[in-house]
Amino acid sequence: MIIYRTALALAVSTITLAYSNVAYAQETPAPTGSVTDPAPVPASADDQDDIIVTGTRAVGRSRLDSASPVDVLSGASLQRQGTTELATALSAIAPSIDFPRPAATDGTDAIRPATLRGLSPDQTLVLINGIRGHTSSLLNTNGSVGRGSAAVDLNTVPTVALDRIEVLRDGASAQYGSDAIAGVVNLRLREARSGGGAQVTYGFYDTQVDTANNSRHVTGENAVTASIWQGIGFGSDGFLTVSGEYTKRQPTNRADIDTRVIPNRVTGRYGDPAVEQYTGFVNAGTSLTDSISLYAFGGYQDRDSRSAAFPRIAPPATTPANLATLATLDRAGYRDGFRPVINTKSKDINSAVGLRGELGGFNVDLSLSYGRNRIDYRTLDSANYAFGRATPHTFDDGATIYDQYVAGLDVSRKFDVFQSLNVAFGVEGRREGYKIVPGELASYGYPTAGTVTGIPAGTTAAPGAQGFGGFSPANATERSRRNGSIYLDLEAQVTDKLLVGLAGRAEDYSDFGSTATGKASLRYDFAPWFALRATASTGFRAPSLQQQYFTQTASVVTNGVPILTGTFPSVDPVARALGGVPLEPEKSTNLSVGTVIRAGGFDLTIDAYRIHIRDQIGLSENIAATFSPAVKALLDPFNVSAARFFLNGLASTTKGIDAVAHYRLAAESVGNFDFTVAGNINDVNVTRIPVTTSTLNPAPTLFARSRILTLEDGTPGTKVTGTIDWSLDHVGALARVTYYGDVNQPGTLVGADVHTGKHAITDLELRYTAPKSAQIGLGVSNVFDVYPDRTIAANNSTGVLGYPSYSPFGFNGRYLYARVGLNW
User: Which pLDDT score is estimated for 29?
Assistant: First the structure.
């Protein structure tokens, strides 16, 4: 009840603000604005920038007229920040979206997932121009928010290529298919026949780092982003918009002092990885006939990211164990210790082509899209101890590849039934593929491949590159699946006041079978300034190929026999012996009710929601042969000492309230003001936890308390953002304060939990923008240099973890930046 009382207080105070200002509010005419930094969106509901295409298939509906809550975020609002990362920029202005910045989590440092309403990253569907985007090939298997998920990498699309983003905060599987349990993020690409712009953003940190055992001032760790776009017209209405971006970012380090070495010093690197990436996008369209048009888009990104693993220190020569460690380091060529670097090289493709137009009175859209993500893994500055003095220091660890083909046909027509009836239906076919490519022998094994013979006598060191072991030939896999779907979507304006929507979708997958979902929505406008809306829907998320087939194992030779440990597919014989079964889809029930209030330049939306998910998929803990004789008997035939795998069975209920208040005030003498207060109150409760399998009863702990608490408390229960954007002629300023509630980064035991604390982050920016001229922006992100609460000693035995990586605003401190550009 606490979250509802808090939301009620927010709503009452916001409504009071609306009525106290309504006499002064007025419609603001659309100012001219620059091409790359357009002026604030005017209040008029029929303005083109307010029209949505997400969550409805009826043409011309605005965000304030919809039956479901939809945020419309302009490209300008994404660019008026110090960051050029799309996911970071989006989380700063969308209260329901969080983008933690995990560190020391292998590939997840480079491919970071975003969350909506505190749910798993793979429970939000991402579209590009209304077409399903593809997920990353990376599966997050480490201890961070989103563990076990393979999500879409939002940062593969640069902000310079975007016109706007629409965020549907409502279950939409019946409309769009799998993954849309929490909602939908639709990235709308820029469309331009003329004009262009270029800009360079440069920033650096100026921060005081106060960890548990150290205090130091850091200046530097700079980042530079250069972007350019150009609109090209051809024919009577054809357009080709080309965008490009280059980013080079130095790593950040917020590690604490390492007390294991003398003298005590910083040995780790804990923060953002070093990144160098190139991204290009094109978006095009033209009429072929009076009624048929052709459209296409394509994007490519090459990202090189380098993060650090935990340091391998050279301990004092005071004990036999330390002497043995020193001897191992010396043989590997690192007498003074070393810090491995995990290098991921991601190559990402987004593309689509389609035809749309009118045929026989129906609006028809036929599209074909292809997406692909390949990540090559390397470990640098490392060693494979099993190779002794022959160890390489650079390792090719292998690669993961995911690709997706989607063909869709969407048909719609408006009929003169009731006041209007929009009928939409369509079919979609999808083919997905997943592949693991093994790395070189030294990345995972002993000097002699595939056999026990030839292994040096007396070798006890575990094989594999320190920091990140490679994929072995036993881990190699290549799998694919197909699915087809059909949907019907009805939206009727029954009267001037009543809007009714019904949607249904059926899907069939080649691996797990069929599923069906439905959605009903209602909206009633009691007056032009006040409406109520509600939705009820069922949803699902198909288990990803990554969850079904990801394999990564390590081996240790014991008495001449390789003993395996690691992650196995749920249908692998090892997992089956422990009770693993084929994965089934996650299923959800979504309920929401909300209100829309608007008067002049003011609008307020408040939406309460309840999302119940069952058959949720999770990655189990390691099930070790040492747990019991029964487990040992199951694993011994496979020469496996410990195994983990994915399984269904978790259930959770998420309740919360979103509130967004927006007020525009135009005063000729002092300029235009745009006020926004947006908040999300969210509570996740895990209601069911599997404790047995078909072969293990009793079973070891399948899901540790840390995994459950990450689902429940890993994202802030409260997030409120207040923004003031002011502009006068070509000059403008923005001030934003974002309040984050406490987040718990749980340890194995209660005493090892780390809380981020409750904090407010303040951002400021001044800008000068003129059409067909220069633009300049100067700003500070995190003005007051706020950090999450420090990591406690119980979770920081290595001295690396200075701050909790679950922090929803990161842990890098104050950032200063300048943006210089030119419009033409």
Answer: 33
Amino acid at 157: V
Q: Which residues contact 505 (CB under 8 A, 6 or more apart)?
A: 173, 174, 175, 177, 485, 486, 487, 488, 516, 517, 518
CATH, residue 128: 2.40.170.20
- Relative to beta strand 759-769, strand 754-755 is unpaired
Helix ranges (H only) for 207-361 are: 320-332
Please check whether residue 548 lies inside any domain of the structure: yes
**Domain count for the chain:** 1
Range of the domain at 504: 2-207+236-823
How far is it, in rounded angstroms, from Cα 412 to Cα 343?
Answer: 47
Total residue count of the chain as it appears in this document: 824
Q: Are 664 and 25 in contact (CB under 8 A)?
A: yes
Peptide bond before residue 315 is cis, with ω within 30 degrees of 0: no
DSSP assignment letter at 769: E
Domain assignment of residue 698, yes or no: yes
- Segment 136-140 shows an average pLDDT of 96
pTM for the full model? 0.91
User: Degrees (nearest 5) of the Cα angle 319, 321, 325?
Assistant: 115
Whether residue 160 has pLDDT greater than 90: yes
The rounded radius of gyration (Å) of the Cα atoms in the chain is: 27
Q: CA-CA distance, 61 to 42, in Å (whole number)?
A: 16
Give Cβ neighbours of residue 816 (< 8 Å, ≥ 6 apart): 82, 203, 204, 205, 206, 779, 780, 781
> Residue 119's closest CA among 75, 184, 163?
184
SS3 of 3, please? helix
pLDDT value at residue 48: 39
| Whether the Cβ atoms of residue 665 and residue 673 lie closer than 8 Å to each other | yes
For residues 787 and 811, the answer to whether their CB atoms sit within 8 Å is: yes
* Percentage of the chain exceeding pLDDT 90: 77
669 CB burial (10 A radius; 0-12, 13-18, 19+): exposed
Neighbour tally for 469: CB within 10 Å = 26
SS3 210: strand
Q: Quote the strand ranges of 133-214, DSSP E.
A: 162-168, 183-189, 196-210
- List the single range of 90-104, 478-492, 548-562 with lowest mean pLDDT: 548-562
Whether residue 455 is contained in a domain is answered as yes
Report if residue 223 sits inside a domain. Answer: no
Residue 160 has what DSSP assignment? G
Residue 85, exposed/middle/buried by CB under 10 A (0-12, 13-18, 19+)?
buried
Residue 697: other Cβ atoms inside 10 A = 10
Distance separating alpha carbons of residues 740 and 133, to the nearest angstrom: 29
